[in-house]
Structures are given as structure tokens and as C-alpha cells.
Amino acid sequence: AMSRSKRHHATASSMGLTSYFTFDDAAGFFAQPLDVVVFAVSIVSFESTIARLREPLAASTSAPLPVDVPSVKEHPQTPLLAQAPAHMSILCTHPMFGPESGRFGWQDLPLVYDRVRLFDEHTDVCERFLSVFEQAGCKMVDMPCSKHDE
After folding, report:
1. How many other C-beta atoms can be found within 10 angstroms of the C-beta atom of residue 45?
2. pTM, rounded to two decimals
3. Which of 34, 119, 116 is nearest to 82 (CA)?
4. What is the mean pLDDT of the chain?
5. What's the sign of the alpha-carbon dihedral 73, 79, 83, 86?
6. Any idea of the CA torsion for 57, 19, 35, 134, to the nearest 10 degrees?
7. What's the distance, Cα to Cα, between the start and end of the chain in Å?
8. What is the pLDDT of residue 6?
9. How far apart are CA 125 and CA 111, in angstroms?
10. How many CB atoms lie within 10 A of CB 73?
11. What is residue 125's predicted lDDT score, i.e. its pLDDT?
12. Is 95 helix (H, G, I), strand (E, B) or coil?
């Protein structure tokens, strides 16, 4: 986990996660085997975050699946396609719920997703990631990013 908020570091620690304050601190993070990297950042900082992490992502030996979660889809899809190494799959998602609407569970709450670029070797990781939401009862909506934004 990476966050500028000390509160989020405490939460990450309580979950057994390592957390980082800066991009430089997180550089070693990509040296370990990773299945998925979730980019839960604001739309305003999404493109710069992807650009800052392009080299560490490219250097990663495990080629993790990048997943975005912002509420609009084409805006994050564009920098992911431009910045993520060509051998990486890309999954764009929008959990259409938050801490308030999902506080009692995710049953019947929609998760919109688009397998923007999916290579055979990443299919299992992608499906395992999506299954977390499916098993929690989400309504799974497979939809292209452009249609979602309409």
C-alpha cells in the first residue's frame, strides 16, 4: 500500500501489508512477485502516477496486472495503454459503490469492468481478481470503457 496519510498506513499495517509514503520508497515493492497492482488514486493524479511507476512496472519480473478503480474509465485507460509495458494486460474497473453504500456488504452492487488488454498468461489472475467481487455478491457488468463513460 502507498499513501500519504498516516491513517492509511495504520490500516495497512493492521492488515499485514507493507506501506510506503513516497514513490522512491515504493521502488523495491515492484521487485517482489506481484499478481495485481491496484491504482486507487484520484483522476487528477492518475496519469502522473502511472508515468512515475512506468519504469518500476516495466522492470517487474512478475508482470503484474494493473487495475484501475476511478469512476471514469477512458481517462485512466488512455495513460495505462500508453505507459504500461506492451506485455502487460490491463483491467479497468469501477466498483459503483463506496464505504457508505457498501458498508453492509456488496450484494447486488454493480462492478463495471473492461478487460482492456488481456493476454492468455494473465487470464487466471484477472479472473481471480474479478471473482473477489463476484463471490461478495456484486452484479458483474462487463462493459467497454467508452460505453461506461457515456
Report:
1. 11
2. 0.83
3. 116
4. 84
5. positive
6. -130
7. 32
8. 65
9. 17
10. 23
11. 94
12. strand
DSSP strand pairing (90-95 vs 110-117) = antiparallel
Phi, psi of 85 (to 5 degrees): -55, 145
Indicate the SS3 state at residue 48: helix
Q: Give CA–CA dist 31/94, Å, rounded.
A: 28
Pairing of strands 36-39, 90-95: unpaired
- DSSP letter at 66 equals E
117 residue type, one letter: R
Cβ atoms 77, 50 nearer than 8 A: no
pLDDT value at residue 63? 79
CB count in 10 Å sphere of residue 130:
19
Query: Torsions phi, psi of 122, nearest 5?
Result: -105, 0
- Give the phi and the psi of residue 133 in degrees, each rounded to 5: -75, -40
The x, y and z cell numbers of residue 2, run together, are: 502507498
65-99 per-position pLDDT tens digit: 888 887 777 878 888 888 888 888 999 999 999 88
Q: How far apart are CA 144 and CA 43, in angstroms?
A: 18
